[in-house]
Amino acid sequence: MAARLVSVASALCLAVAGVQGGRGAWIFAKAEAAQVLLHRAWEQARSGEDRPRPWPWADSWPVARIILPGGDHIVLAGASGRTLAFAPGHLDGSAAPGADGACVIAGHRDTHFAELEDLAVGDRVVLEDASGHRHVYRVTSTAVVDEHDISVLEQGATPTLVLVTCWPFHAVSEGGPLRYVVRAEIVKTLHVRTLER
To answer: Which of 14, 60, 138, 189 is the most buried (most CB within 10 A)?
Structure first.
């Protein structure tokens, strides 16, 4: 009888492990497919299509591509939770890439913006817009601020890039009241198609 209970318990544990493993694989596969669709929509935006949606039910579209020292990411319009689940988001009402004022982009600390932890003053960040311009920024400061401190979002007269994510980077629980903010000032603007020749 005891052996049978152990056998049933083992089978139940294996079944639960299989279900959980399948769910994890599904999430990973969905994230990978989303990245392919985001890059496809970005190419459509670069070709002149207005607000190309990565999938039919998407409520956002690619507005830029951010190139960090560790890789690049498509940036979507808006910074809602649904948007940030797939990519960094350009905060509504903030400046466009390369324009005067602060271009604010938010992302999750444990996915797309995990590498912000390694950015240092003097590092370069590139923001490519759909019209074919690469705006090169130099990091001027990093700070940890309260989530209600909106002074980091202030608009100025010069093109500035503000990257925002949750802090601390390796926190066990999500969210929290603190934000990590990277500020960078524009250095130069290049035309992508000139670079590709």
So the answer is: 60
DSSP character at residue 143? E
Q: How would you classify residue 32: left for phi > 0, otherwise alpha for psi between -120 and 50, otherwise beta?
A: alpha
Residue ranges making up the domain that contains 73: 38-195
When divided into structural domains, the chain yields a total of 1
160-172 burial code (b ≥16 CB/10 A, e <16): bbbbbbbbeeeee
Nearest alpha carbon to residue 81 among 61, 101, 108: 108
3-state secondary structure of 40: helix
Least confidently predicted of 80-84, 94-98, 171-175, 181-185: 171-175
Q: Is 141 part of a structural domain of the chain?
A: yes
Question: pLDDT: is 166 or 5 the higher one?
Answer: 166
Q: Please compute the mean of the pLDDT values over residues 116-130 and round it to a whole number.
A: 96
Tell me, what CATH number does 119's domain have?
2.40.260.10
Asked whether residue 47 is assigned to any structural domain, the reply reads yes
| CB of 126 closer than 8 Å to CB of 137 | yes
Contacts of 55 (CB under 8 A, 6+ apart): 34, 37
Mean pLDDT over each residue of the chain, to the nearest integer: 86
pLDDT digits (tens, 9 = 90+) for 4-14: 665 655 656 56
